[in-house]
């Protein structure tokens, strides 16, 4: 997962991935030139893995009977398995991290943009129930929306005040659909970096989830100052500046910006260590398959979090590490891979020169797939990608490549699952909201938009990797089904959302 962010430059809005330094690159889909900003990287050198050792490992794989049951998902059926890093392999202590993100962002907006401290410097703890991943911002109206299927607005707020059903219908029509919400649900990639991104934005992960609270509190302040609702709000560009400041890539090495210095000073306060089960499970997968790490983080930040979560020898768990992937463009574009030397990106690397054991920056899926084909000796290796960001990691690879996906969604465990009372999520207070309701939707209100994405674009959904690591690689999971009767229940493991 990477931070889904946009920066307004002149009259355009350009997408950013995690942690921000402005750096001009070529074209993205539609030929739009964009700027990106990400915490840059330092590598620890290559691991002691030879090409011959990998080839010998792949030459005689353990015979596995491929399941012919199309409703069954098994890890052992794949030749290559890739993982996202943040909030997939590396899980954060969300209560502490989200609080830190809010405080850094609020302080920036008060000190640098002149917003009212009485509103923004209020402790986040007072509005924890307002937090939810996947909320959509209607910039101009100052509204925050929760979407159901096909762009239906199931719940909404103006600022931090929830709207009644009557108010939602008076604003968006009796069908409770906004043209932008419908368009967003039809093509999330266009909303990510096209003209639509100037009118609508979703907080897709735990890096930018506090931005919705900040947005709401600023709208509250402006309404109170003017004595009524404004015709239009223009606060999002300032919030984007704050997010850009917080995650600017130079801040990791220069120890500035608030966010990175706090993580570096006390990583144990914000980053969970992976269990020995997960680490041994990754080793087991790598015994018979190619395993790759594909992250939007630059290598210095990725190395820092991986070292804390997985240990000093984290690179030995992966055949190849790909940083600053700039998802979702990685899966749709044709940017070349770039060799990393210390903290510096070097020259582009020809796909034929990619080496096992190295770290690379940027790149694209087609070249990676060529590399995977070459290393497995298979013309069409079967690939799987495991991630948490439902746009970058699930929707886009599912829609634009032949790579299957698995969704890791912490809300599944935090909200509770049917027939499973033993699962405990220590940060449920941050990601479970009684105000917005279940992240997945309910039997009465129908699926949320995001549960539709999970069902339609991932094979299965888990609350974390530990659930998988306890099971053999040939364990058979029921996949999501197109059948209306079963669609809401199959595919989730170890249980479907209790709200269903």
Report on this model:
This protein is an alpha/beta fold and about 500 residues long. It has 2 domains: about 40-90 and about 270-480, Rossmann fold (3-Layer(aba) Sandwich); about 95-265, no CATH class. It is built from 20 helices and 22 strands. Helix 2 (about 95-110) packs parallel to helix 7 and helix 2 packs across helix 8. The longest helix is centred in the first third of the chain and has 18 residues, at about 95-110. The relative contact order is 0.17.
Outline the biggest β-sheet.
9 strands, mixed
DSSP helix fraction: 25-40%
Number of helices: 20
Number of domains: 2
What is the distance, rounded to the nearest whole angstrom, between the alpha carbons of the first and last residues? 26 Å
Unreliable stretches covering 5 or more consecutive residues? 1-66
Q: What is the CATH superfamily classification of the largest domain?
A: HAD superfamily/HAD-like
Strand order of the largest sheet: 15-14-16-13-12-6-17-18-21
Strands, count: 22
- Looking at the overall shape, the CATH architecture of the largest domain is 3-Layer(aba) Sandwich
- State the shape: globular
As a percent range, the share of strand residues is 15-25%
- Compute the gyration radius: what is it? 22 Å
CATH fold-level name of the largest domain: Rossmann fold
What structural class do helix, strand and pairing data support? alpha/beta
CATH class of the largest domain: Alpha Beta
Mean pLDDT: 86
């Amino acid at each position: 997962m990477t931070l889904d962010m946009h920066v307004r430059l002149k009259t355009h809005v350009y997408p950013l991935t995690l942690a921000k330094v402005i750096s001009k690159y070529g074209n993205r889909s539609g030929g739009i030139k964009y700027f990106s900003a990400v915490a840059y990287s330092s590598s620890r050198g290559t691991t002691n893995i030879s090409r011959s050792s990998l080839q010998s490992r792949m030459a005689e794989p353990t015979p596995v009977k491929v399941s012919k049951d199309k409703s069954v998902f098994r890890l052992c059926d794949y030749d290559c398995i890739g993982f996202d890093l943040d909030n997939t392999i590396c899980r954060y202590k969300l209560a502490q991290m989200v609080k830190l993100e809010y405080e850094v962002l609020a302080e920036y907006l008060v000190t640098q943009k002149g917003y009212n401290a009485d509103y923004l410097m209020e402790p986040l703890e007072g509005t924890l129930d307002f937090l939810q991943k996947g909320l959509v911002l209607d910039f101009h109206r100052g509204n925050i929306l929760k979407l159901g299927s096909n762009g239906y607005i199931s719940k909404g707020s103006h600022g931090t005040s929830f709207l009644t059903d009557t108010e939602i219908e008076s604003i968006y029509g009796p069908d409770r659909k906004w043209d932008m919400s419908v368009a967003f649900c039809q093509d999330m990639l266009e909303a990510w970096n096209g003209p639509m991104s100037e009118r609508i934005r979703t907080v897709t992960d735990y890096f930018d989830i506090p931005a919705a609270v900040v947005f709401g509190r600023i709208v509250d302040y402006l309404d109170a100052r003017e004595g009524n609702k404004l015709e239009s709000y223009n606060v999002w560009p300032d919030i984007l500046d704050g997010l850009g400041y917080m995650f600017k890539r130079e801040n990791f090495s220069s120890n500035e910006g608030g966010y990175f210095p706090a993580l570096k000073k006390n990583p144990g306060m914000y980053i969970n260590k992976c269990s020995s089960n997960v680490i041994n499970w990754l080793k087991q997968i790598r015994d018979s398959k190619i395993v790759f790490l594909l992250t939007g983080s630059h290598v210095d930040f990725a190395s820092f979090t991986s070292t804390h979560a997985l240990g000093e020898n984290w690179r030995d768990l992966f055949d190849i590490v790909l940083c600053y992937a700039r998802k979702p463009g990685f899966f749709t574009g044709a940017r070349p891979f770039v060799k990393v030397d210390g903290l510096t990106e070097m020259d582009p690397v020809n796909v034929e020169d990619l080496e096992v054991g190295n770290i690379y920056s940027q790149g694209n899926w087609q070249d990676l797939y060529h590399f995977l084909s070459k290393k497995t000796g298979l013309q069409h290796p079967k690939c799987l990608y495991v991630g948490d960001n439902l746009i970058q990691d699930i929707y886009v690879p599912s829609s634009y490549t032949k790579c299957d996906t698995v969704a890791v969604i912490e809300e599944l465990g935090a909200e509770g699952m049917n027939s499973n009372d033993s699962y405990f999520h220590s940060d449920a207070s941050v990601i479970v909201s009684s105000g917005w309701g279940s992240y997945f939707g309910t039997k009465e209100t129908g699926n949320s938009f995001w549960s539709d994405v999970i069902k339609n674009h991932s094979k299965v959904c888990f609350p974390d990797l530990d659930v998988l690591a306890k099971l053999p690689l040939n364990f058979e999971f029921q996949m999501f089904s197109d059948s209306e009767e079963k669609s809401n229940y199959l595919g989730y493991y170890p249980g479907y959302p209790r709200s269903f």
